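queue> pop job 88
queue> type: inverse folding (structure -> sequence)
queue> payload:
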């Protein structure tokens, strides 16, 4: 199968950020986001923001990562068109956000988001 190298490919990554400590030797959990590279040094960030009482879906498009101090990055797949970017946005907006559950956080949202993307094709 031949691939048209002129067609844009976008990498989707799971990125973790250090959020500091609640108190000495008691760290906050890492914050996780999904990031899709859309150009040189820019991309779309999909995440939940807030705390357990106010979690909300947030998305920025074609912006550099706000927090450059990422702890880790794992590429999960490549996307081959702008149409796919619109489908990702639409699907991730629909991922359920759970509030008032201390055991639920951005890790759970990203896991559900990746499962949703996988299941949507």
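queue> result:
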């Amino acid at each position: 199968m031949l691939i048209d190298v002129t067609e844009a490919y976008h990498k989707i990554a799971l990125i973790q950020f250090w959020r500091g400590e609640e108190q000495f030797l008691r760290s906050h959990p890492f914050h996780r986001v999904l990031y899709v590279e859309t150009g040189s040094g820019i991309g779309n960030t999909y995440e939940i923001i807030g705390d357990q009482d106010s979690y909300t879906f947030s998305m920025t498009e074609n912006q550099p990562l706000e927090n450059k101090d990422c702890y880790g990055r794992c590429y999960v797949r490549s996307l081959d068109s702008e149409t796919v970017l619109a489908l990702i946005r639409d699907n991730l907006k629909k991922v359920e956000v759970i509030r008032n559950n201390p055991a639920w956080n951005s890790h759970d949202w990203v896991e559900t988001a990746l499962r949703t993307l996988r299941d949507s094709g």
